[in-house]
Amino acid sequence: MKPSRFFTKEEKNRIMDAIREAEHNTSGEIRVHIEKDCPGDVLDRAAYIFAKLGMHRTRLRNGVLIYLSLEDRKFAILGDAGINRVVPEGFWDNIKEEMLRLFREGKVTDGLVKGILMAGEKLKEHFPYQEDDVNELSDEISFGDKMDKS
Questions:
Q1: DSSP label at 88?
Q2: How many CA atoms lie within 13 A of 2 on its CB side?
Q3: Are the C-beta atoms of 109 and 14 separated by less than 8 Å?
Q4: How far apart are CA 20 and CA 99, in angstroms?
Q5: Cβ distance 77 to 96 under 8 Å?
Q6: Is the separation of the CB atoms in 70 and 37 below 8 Å?
Q7: Which of 6, 81, 113, 147 would bridge 18 by S-S if both were Cys, CB 3.0 to 4.6 A apart?
Q8: Could you tell me the fold of the domain covering 12-127?
Q9: One digit per residue, pLDDT tens: the chain, 150 residues?
Q10: Does an H or E element contain 64, and which?
Q11: Please, which contacts does 121-124 make with residues 24 or more away whose CB atoms are closer than 8 Å?
Q12: What is the C-alpha R_g of the chain?
């Protein structure tokens, strides 16, 4: 099954609504990318997608990618340099654990929504929402079957 068809329209809307809600708490930018399978190491692939989506171009370098590979059952949360400079090691661990718990229950959309909202809350600690905040990255979900797989 193509990743873009894995979620219903309602599930896609829930995920994008969660991104918008999370970004109301922070100047950070959150993206979700879904692929059928992950060629190689999940963090390497997430870093490649992060760059391909231009997520390193935010003013404060505070983009976050939630990457999910459906068939391999792999996922990663990857923060940009601005985030990694100020957060402690293991910053994403409790979010990953909560997402994994829901994924194991077969609740993929719930896991993504929960992870997105938790990421927004965590980002708020270091990157609070600014009145003049500009949405620098799309809130749309990106799918591997809709972009070059190289």
A1: P
A2: 10
A3: yes
A4: 19
A5: yes
A6: yes
A7: 113
A8: Diaminopimelate Epimerase; Chain A, domain 1 (3.10.310)
A9: 799 999 999 999 999 999 999 988 888 889 999 999 998 999 999 999 999 999 988 888 889 999 999 999 999 999 999 888 888 888 899 999 999 999 999 999 999 999 999 999 888 888 887 776 666 666 789 999 766 443
A10: strand 63-69
A11: 121/22, 121/25, 122/87, 122/91, 122/92, 122/95, 123/22, 123/25, 123/26, 123/27, 123/28, 123/30, 123/62, 123/64, 123/83, 124/25, 124/26
A12: 14
**How is residue 59 written in tokens?**
């003013």
Domain layout of the chain by residue ranges: 12-127
Residue with tokens 């994924």: 103
Structure tokens at 101: 């718990």
Give the residues across from 31 on adjacent strands: 65
- Token pair listed for 70: 């459906």
The total of other beta-carbon atoms located within 10 Å of residue 91's CB is 18
Interacting residues of 109 by C-beta distance below 8 A, sequence separation 6+ = 7, 11, 14, 15
Chain-centroid distance, C-alpha 45: 13
Residue 40's CB is within 10 A of a number of other CB atoms, namely 8
